[in-house]
Amino acid sequence: MTATRTPAARPGASCDRKTTYREAMREALREALRTDERVFLMGEDVGRYGGCFGVSLGLLEEFGPERIRDAPLSESAFVGAGIGAALAGMRPVVEIMTVNFSLLALDQILNNAATLLHMSGGQLPVPIVIRMTTGAGRQLAAQHSHSLEGWYAHIPGLRVLAPATLTDARYMLAPALADPDPVLIFEHGSLYNVSGDPPTDAGPVDIDHAAVRRPGRDVSLITYGGSLPKALAAADDLAGCGIDAEVVDLRSLRPLDDAVIGDSVERTHRAVVIDEGWRTGSLAAEISARLTEQHFYDLDAPVERVCSAEVPMPYARRLEEAALPQVGGIVAAARRAVGDPTPTGPGEAEQQPATGRAG
User: Fold this and answer.
1) Helix (H, G, I), strand (E, B), or coil: what is residue 336?
2) Catalytic residue check, 75
3) Which residue among the candidates 23, 44, 95, 144 is catalytic per the annotation?
4) Segment 14-55, tens digit of pLDDT
């Protein structure tokens, strides 16, 4: 294993009374552990350390080492153990520190978890939940800044979720654990410190459908995960220009909710897809293709895409910011979609499509 374990610094205690995304995830885990004795959490540093990003802090003391299991430094081994436990009737929640390390367990996820139900003729469901941190924007450089959720959304047999709000962070886990299929939950690292006052009576959320986070009539901004706050900020900026943008939060990346996406484009007739993944072969490319296939005559302009630059993620902050989708780029793409030629300001340059050269 060549990668170096250099996660983000562990958060300290906060005096903020509002719930954070991190605390919402922890409360979801606590509820699952209390409700169902088959549920257990397993992964590197989830116990005594409290989780690389502090999500499982305090759970070891509350539930003990049988339910909160620190795993050895082998993703293939502990993901495989989780699959075995799921086959035996347990409801494991397996935490992979960051998405790049999930590649060390890709054989287990792709060739076992995703396929056993099919290959056994429906006899071997694998009800495992695998959580992992994804995304850039925290100066963790090329080793720990990947956005590979689009890769996993390519795989039949998996359900792929991307909670972007406090409510989804709190209430997506219960229906994920109830799903008979393997569920991957991608938590964007930039969201852990986001705080707010989520409703206390929301209950399990719908993991089958996208959500319109802001209604609009001129252009649809379609995104998920860590890019949702940027899309909402871009919608605010566009409103100042007289452009009414609708913001769609995908929430589920596999299966995609074609109905909500299509309904939005039928209303606005223009679409901008924001995806932190690389542009080539991206989730944004899939959504663009589906819109072209299913809503060609509803579109009044080509589908715009705002994606990450096709380079290994830089460490330097300004270079990292330049490589990632930003509010200015989203605003510029939406203006192009509505035919507004107004020059853009600094930081609003168009993100160019990939060329034939890598790096």
Assistant:
1) helix
2) yes
3) 144
4) 344 589 999 999 999 999 999 999 999 999 999 999 999 999
